[in-house]
Amino acid sequence: MVKNNNNLKSVDPLVTVAMPIYNAGKYLRPAVLSIMQQTLTDWELYIIDDGSTDDALSYIADIQDSRIIIIKDGQNKGLAVRLNEVINLAKGRYFARMDQDDFAYPERFSKQVEVLEDNLDLDLLATRAIKISIENEPVGYLPFSISHEEITAAPWRGFYMPHPTWMGRLQWFKKNHYAQPAPHLTEDQELLLRTFEDSHFACLEDICLAYRVRDKTCLRKLLKIRYHQLCMQ
Q1: What torsion do the CA atoms of 148, 132, 24, 194 make, to the nearest 10 degrees?
Q2: Could you read off the pLDDT tens digit of each residue along the chain, which spans 233 residues?
Q3: Do the beta carbons of residue 81 and residue 180 sit within 8 Å?
Q4: Interior angle at CA 37, CA 5 and CA 126, nearest 5
Q5: Which of 40, 66, 77, 161 has its CA at 20 to 30 Å from residue 46's CA atom?
Q6: d(C-alpha 50, C-alpha 77), whole Å
Q7: Which distant-in-sequence residues (6+ apart) come within 8 Å of 209 by Cβ?
């Protein structure tokens, strides 16, 4: 089922935002509102439900905005598949990631678009991000690097480029879809590893997103992620 709250705009938007969700709960509403409060208003937002078993969409049922498209088909296909679906549907010049429980600062899109417009050789741009608890308290920062050279200096250790803040050229994403089947919890790292030699990445020094930490990651989970990263390399 595809739900659109109003008629779609006839003019293509500047930015397409992908927000795959799975059991987002009460955190979905502030995430969506943070997109609606962007100073850059020329965007479309795809909220694509990956077979959730909660009632998260009820938290945004009252929001009426023609820029928001909700897709719900009852299936659980995984994050990579859902992101590729939005990439194929996107009409924007730029494609942006947004997680279901994070909070984008109002000038995130405007700052990223400005840099991408001024640097035509830049394929993918991230920003710095602060980590917040479920109570909205700051608890640290996501690791990051600024320049392409710094980001790609040690591929075997991973790429310090916060994935929830990504914005890039849509054509780059269409050329480099997410891998299917996706490696375990490392979809974004796999994409960077596959493309970094022929692409140009960067990260803004500005903090443009609050990244919600909902639970502690256990050692077993971290080791499994690291194992899959090593297998990719």
Answers
A1: 20
A2: 444 444 444 489 999 999 999 999 999 999 999 999 999 999 999 999 999 999 999 999 999 999 999 999 999 999 999 999 999 999 999 999 999 999 999 999 999 999 999 999 999 999 999 999 999 999 999 999 999 999 999 999 999 999 999 999 999 999 999 999 888 789 999 999 999 999 999 999 999 999 999 765 543 443 444 444 455 45
A3: yes
A4: 105
A5: 161
A6: 6
A7: 102, 103, 104, 105, 108, 127, 129, 130, 162, 164, 165
